[in-house]
């Protein structure tokens, strides 16, 4: 009996629905979304103490909305999986119950037959009354098989009963999981509705500041253009020196390793992308273009540090209006830029490794750390998100 209980427990623990072969990946993705929402909440909490309404607050809120929508989609998928498995498990339970009824009926017939022939004298008389030796052998085999069949049917009944216990336990587990997922989905939907109302309210309030925002945008455009020109000048000069042999030789082995890690590089800081690579549009005035972004802007909790995404050499440190200190790191023919640093921990010529601290990130007007990060291959700008894992 104890052994059967152990087998039952092990089987219940290891029984997983066919739809959940990638359940670990789903859980990891769900965990990532929950962590992203928590990280945004932390930054919004800091923002609310500084300014109630700002573009970054609106952007973070929208990022949170997107993350929550993805989380709800994930829960919808989980619930659909649970429902499908519950349906198939109910069908299996019905099949096992039907099989159990058949086995018990057949077993009862066998037991009655065995009962009638339980006396050895009856067995002998039945065999001896045979017309010939062949009939006697057949009757002997029949009586012998009755006893064997009774034992076999008893074992089949026990096995089916155990299968039925497993399926019933699995069904209860699936129902509990489905109920939990549905409750969680309802909670997320309520939160989503609240956040959507907040975002719409922010748009209404911020739209009243159109003139001031356009002035800020013009100033930002000038700062971006100055930064981009300086970075392009530095890179063009570096490539020119390498080709002429005047500069340090390109570490092609390092370049190859860097290239092999496309999509695998660690993030320079744990945060949320609030400005993507390329052409972005104003979060309030949809037809208004933002300055073209040669990199990405990442919002992170105050006090966060920028970390090296790969081994390399610090090539240059510069100071730019609107971007504070910027650190250029060379990785063979690749370059990474870390801008908006209020404190730098490295100096030109330093060899650094993946994960090394480069500097403390400056705070934006909302009180959150905001890193501007760029990645280049020679003089060709790259979308950093395609390189980061």
Which features would summarize this protein structure in a list?
389 residues; alpha+beta; Glucose Permease (Domain IIA); 2 domains; 7 helices; 10 strands; 59% helix; Peptidoglycan DD-metalloendopeptidase family protein; Dup_hybrid_motif; coiled coil
Structure description:
By secondary structure, the protein is α+β, with helices and mostly antiparallel strands. The protein folds into two domains: 2-206, no CATH class; 216-386, Glucose Permease (Domain IIA) (Distorted Sandwich), CATH 2.70.70. It is built from seven helices and ten strands. Strands 1, 2, 3, 4, 5, 6, 7, 8, 9 and 10 form a ten-stranded antiparallel beta sheet that branches. The model is unreliable at 1-19 (pLDDT under 50). InterPro entries: Cell_wall_metabolism_enzyme, Dup_hybrid_motif, M23ase_b-sheet_dom. One of its GO terms (molecular function) is metalloendopeptidase activity. Residues 1-20 form the signal peptide.
């Amino acid at each position: 009996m104890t052994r059967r209980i152990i087998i039952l427990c092990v089987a219940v623990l290891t029984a997983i629905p066919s739809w959940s072969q990638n359940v670990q990946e789903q859980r990891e993705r769900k965990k990532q979304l929950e962590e992203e929402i928590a990280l945004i909440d932390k930054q919004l909490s800091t923002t609310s103490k500084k300014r109630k309404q700002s573009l970054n607050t609106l952007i973070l809120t929208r990022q949170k909305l997107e993350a929550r929508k993805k989380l709800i989609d994930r829960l919808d998928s989980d619930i659909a999986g649970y429902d499908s498995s519950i349906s198939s498990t109910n069908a299996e339970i019905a099949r096992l119950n039907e099989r159990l009824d058949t086995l018990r009926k057949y077993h009862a017939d066998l037991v009655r037959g065995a009962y009638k022939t339980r006396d050895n004298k009856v067995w002998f008389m039945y065999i001896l009354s045979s017309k010939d030796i062949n009939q006697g052998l057949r009757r002997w085999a029949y009586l012998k098989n009755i006893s064997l069949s009774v034992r076999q049917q008893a074992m089949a009944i026990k096995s089916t009963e155990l299968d039925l216990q497993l399926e019933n336990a699995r069904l209860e587990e699936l129902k509990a999981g489905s109920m939990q997922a549905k409750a969680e989905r309802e909670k997320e939907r309520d939160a989503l509705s609240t956040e959507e109302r907040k975002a719409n309210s922010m748009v209404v309030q911020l739209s009243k500041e159109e003139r001031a925002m356009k002035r800020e945008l013009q100033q930002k455009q000038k700062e971006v253009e100055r930064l981009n020109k300086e970075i392009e000048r530095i890179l063009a000069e570096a490539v020119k020196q390498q080709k002429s042999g005047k500069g340090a030789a390109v570490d092609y082995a390092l370049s190859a390793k860097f290239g092999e890690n496309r999509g695998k590089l660690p993030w320079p800081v744990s945060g949320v992308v609030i400005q993507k690579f390329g052409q972005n549009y104003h979060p309030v005035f949809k037809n208004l273009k933002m300055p073209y972004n040669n990199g990405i802007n990442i919002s992170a909790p105050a006090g966060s540090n920028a970390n090296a995404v790969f081994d390399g050499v610090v090539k240059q440190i510069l100071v730019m209006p609107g971007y504070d200190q910027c650190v250029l790191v060379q990785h063979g023919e690749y370059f990474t830029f870390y801008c908006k640093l209020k404190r730098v921990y490295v100096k030109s010529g330093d060899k650094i490794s993946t994960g090394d601290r480069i500097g403390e990130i400056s705070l934006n007007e909302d009180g959150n750390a905001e890193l501007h990060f760029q990645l280049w291959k020679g003089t060709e700008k790259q979308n950093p998100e395609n390189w980061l894992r």
